[in-house]
Design brief:
Elements lengths: L1 E6 L9 H9 L2 H12 L5 H10 L6 H8 L8 H10 L2 E10 H11 L3 E10 L2 E8 L6 H13 L6 E5 L5 H4 L4 E5 L3 H4 L4 E3 L5 H7 L4
Helix pairs in contact: 1-2, 2-3, 4-6, 5-10
Length: 210
Amino acid sequence: MKLAVFDFDSTLMDGETIDFLAQELGFEDEVASITERAMAGELDFFDSLVERVALLKGLSEDKVNEICANLPLMPGAKEAVQGLKDMGFRVVCFSGGFRNATEPLGKELGIDADFSNYLHAKDGILTGLVGGEMMFSDSKGKMIERLQGLLGVSKEKSIVIGDGANDLSMFKYAGVSVAFCAKPILKEAATDIVDKKDLREVIKIAKRID
């Protein structure tokens, strides 16, 4: 058994889900600025997530789902997921973003499971509140450790791929860690760096895992 864990925003998907949602309400620049600082490790991830989601209050759940169903995939995403599965990997997505996006795109990509957060809505309208499995800076590390125990997968048989500071916690649990078009803070911790926007590069790196 081998395990591959992808981040979602700016890794499997070309962009940040919350930035696309904020654009609908005219808060794109404000939210993007907070996102940028959080991914660079300059802000606490939990605090930044709560602050950004609060700005989405009033957006209809139908509009959220419509936007999330049409997010752009990263070039090579489908080929990377299928290539890893052909090599015997279980492929999972961890996201500090939202299930509204990871679930439909995960199904499209053929991912085995997705773990992310939930935008709270009441009467079909976002309340500005959020909860879920990936709320904190160490959430991804804790989740991959649990998955490895559940599936019986060792660190040496695991590869992780991400771009931002909230991916740091899972890097130490993988024998191969890929900083994909990533922030400097993540590149410093990675075994491999890919600066080309093409996830097919991950397949070449994963071949090192027997």
